[in-house]
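Model it.
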Amino acid sequence: MTQTPATNDIKFMDRNPPAFSEDEARTMARDLFGLEGAFRSLESERDQNFHITGDKGDYVLKIANAEEDPGVIDFQTQALLHIEDRDPELVVPRVVKSLDGNVTETVADADGMDHLVRVVTFLPGTLLEDSTLDQPLLHEVGATVARLDRALTGFMHAHAENPHPWDIMRAGDMRPHTKHIDDATARRNIETILDHFIDDVGPRMRRLRHQVVHNDATHNNVVVDGTGESRTIGVIDFGDMVFAPLLCELAMAVDTLMPYVDDPIGAMCDVAAGFDTVITLEEDEVDLLFDAIMTRFAVTSVIIAWRRAVTPEQPDYLREYEEPGQRLIAKLLDIGVDAARARLRHHLRFPPYCPPEEDPTLDDNLDALLARRYDVLGKHLTIFYERPVHMVKGQGPWLFDARGKRYVDAYNNVPIVGHAHPHVVRALTRQARTLNTHTRYIYESVIEYAERLTATLPDHLTACTFVNSGSEANDIAWRMATMVTGKRGAIIMSDAYHGITEAIAHLSPEGTKEERAPHVRELMAPDTYRGPYFAGEENLAKRYAADADRAIAELDEAGYGTACFMVDTSFVNHGVIDVPEGYPRLVAEKVKAAGGLIIADEVQFGFGRPGTHMWGLDVHGIEADFVTLGKPIGNGMAIGAVITRRDILKAFGDATGLFSTFGGNPVACAAGNAVLDVIEQEELMESARVTGEHLRAGLRDLMQRHTLIGDVRGYGLMAGVEIVGDRQTKEPAPDDMKQVLNRMKDLGVLAGREGILGNVIKIRPPLAFKREHADILVDAMDQALSEMAS
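Modeled.
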């Protein structure tokens, strides 16, 4: 533990407030401010305050402690004037000038000590401590405090950083004075909290956003006026203002309420939720709120004990909070920061907490989550790995589980530019904050996105329609193809996958046990490793493409004709095969000659993954009639697109009234535009080429040393590693492949499985994946294979 030394410049620990008589106060009010009426003394920690009720209204006469720096008084006065200018309707005291037009005057006490005197308006109502602390009131307190901070935004003063006993950022200064706490258990608890603040919480809070905060919106400084929906909340007593993390304001607003509610964590959640409606809380602030509140409790307990030890004769109205506060500290320590933080994050709709560092002792809640998942989602959805992973965070090419362990993501193509890319996140949240509705209106961003997207494709593909997924995009393209051609037959690759709609499910035989639809014909995969024609043989493209003649003839004979050839340009489902050069173009030409159209499904290969081109159709030299997009198009946002010829889109729209309520909505298109920004600005297409070549070179080096690797394939930022039991016979080894994948997962690298035989390791990472991440993957695979061989 790093001990912070105590400072000697924190005032008022051993100072009583001024002790002017009521008659003296009356004289000040009358002679200096022209105010008369009934006087009532108000409790105050270190100043002396009187409530004046007279013909002119209600006011508070404030007599400052003689030790108070005049600059601090000016700090408070200028803050009130700033608030009045920024938010005139906010219920806070207003500054009243003296008869001479001054905001403060000076008076001397019997000992000749000067005191600054000022007057502010009195807020009517009931103190929060005397109100019923229900959920709506707690929520409104949080919202009001945030509104106050919003009004203080931009305000600064030379005395804003003066040392202050209630500034929890100086909590370390209190550590030497815990000796004054009589109860040994309470003292140990408070020392634990302060030590944690010094070592961890304080340094993290110093990195949070800072501003001038009220710092004392507690149960006896918040005023409630009215009831029900007409209730208003006001805040008084600006004597504890400091420049501090904004989080401190929220902690102060919660801490003194907690002893008076049955569910203290619930109160914390309610006040925080109210605050969040006005000023959006940041994730780090949410995660530190419980610790900040605990620190505030500890500081309060030390100050009370210290004062009692220094000046036992001093009247101290805070003493009534000492024992309840210490009991609450013990209760909250039992609850623990993990449980409190989890509840707060859930209440504010933050995702589950991700520890900043891996902590294997944390409960990842996996078994309970699996049981809940199976109960409501069934067991049919595939889960990766023998022991699934509970992921809670993504960042660039990394994923993080509930214990804080990080994994290189070498599988996910959905977050194409990287998990939670800040530019994409900013774009979609800014748009969501402004507008998101159906597509019956005009939005410039949607038009801009369609223009940018079509500009990346061949000149004849100029018309775009947006939907919500790749499945919908393929469904629309299929419908367009059948309408334009008047035919009903489809040609696809064997083991293809194109989506989940009823029509497209017939065109997605991967893994299905259903009988093939009569209007669909599959082409043999042009697999030069396992197919009938091998790498190195002559006329490979022609020999494989000849199978299209068979498919076209069969569809004609069955009376369907050929409406389209739908092809995933990555050929990833077949095991990331190396397609013979010219094969896709030859098949497309045959289909075109038969009157069919070409649908290039770019969901897996598009957006720069090829490295040499933006789209797979350009890699293969295909003249497509349709390009369909999904998954990566919005870096995880639900959006899909069909891009085609203008005449096709017009004809189909005229015939069907094509419309997707939410397809291409403003938020999704904001994400799409941002994805294109990142691909261009970060030169991710070139990065895909360089990284992909480096990755496959590393994998081929492994192949020289590990006989389980039968082949390494791929193009751009995509690779397949075929695991075999024998290189000569090419016997597939799916069980060994699973063992390698699971061990790589344990070593912090995530990859997938692919191929009809289930023995190919699929590597298809976000484009944020770079050479250093490829090296981590190769090292993990090397270790996994070495362990299996030993």
